[in-house]
Amino acid sequence: MTSHQTTQTMKPATAAKKLGVYLEATPAEFQEGVISRSELNALQADPPEWLVELRRNGPHPRPVVAAKLGISISGLARGGITEALTTEQIDALKNDQPEWLQKERATQAEVRKETARIKEKQKEKAAGESAEKKNVEKKAERGGQARGPRS
């Protein structure tokens, strides 16, 4: 018996998301077809000019816009940004520093700090549990757990 290997394909929207580009700005042939995994890999390895241009100048999808501005996607929505932006528009926002952007950047910085704090706390807890486990194992090797006073 021979196994038939089917080619994994994806919708253009999925491929655009993986490539980090705004689907509506891609060429029609990209938007209308299905993209195989090997085609996606080829686009990533050796991007055509249209892809290089889109990545450089946009319009960029909201996750890319948010990352370039240093805020969350929710922060974009709170700031009234609901459409794709070009690199030029993103740079203008960075230069103008509207109040909403300053506030969202501060919020994002706090979120990152809190995430780092939680991660560190979890690491310390794991290290403590690991040390406790080692102590229990050492006691077991020595002949059991320490005995309390006899009654």
Describe the structure.
A two-stranded antiparallel ribbon has the order 1-2. It is built from 8 helices and 2 strands, in the order βααβαααααα. The mean pLDDT is 86. It has 151 residues and is mainly α. The termini are far apart.
Strand count, sense and closure of the main sheet? Answer: 2 strands, antiparallel
Query: Rough shape?
Result: flat
Q: Segments where pLDDT lies below 50 for 5+ residues?
A: none
Question: N-to-C terminal Cα separation, in Å?
Answer: 74 Å
Instruction: State the strand order across the main sheet.
Output: 1-2
If you average the pLDDT, what whole number results?
Answer: 86
Q: How many helices in DSSP terms? A: 8
Helix content: 55-70%
Q: What is the beta-strand fraction?
A: under 5%
From the alpha-carbon coordinates, what is the Rg to the nearest angstrom?
A: 26 Å
What does the oligomeric state look like here?
single chain
Output the structural class: mainly alpha
- N-to-C series of helices and strands: EHHEHHHHHH
Task: Count all strands and give the number.
Answer: 2
Task: Give a quick precis of the structure.
This protein is an all-alpha fold and 151 residues long. It contains eight helices and two strands; from the N terminus they run βααβαααααα.
Ordered list of secondary-structure elements with their pairings:
Elements: E1 9-10, H1 12-19, H2 28-32, E2 35-36, H3 37-45, H4 49-57, H5 62-69, H6 73-78, H7 87-96, H8 99-141
Antiparallel strand pairs: 1-2
Which keywords apply here?
151 residues; mainly alpha; two-stranded antiparallel sheet; 8 helices; 2 strands; 65% helix
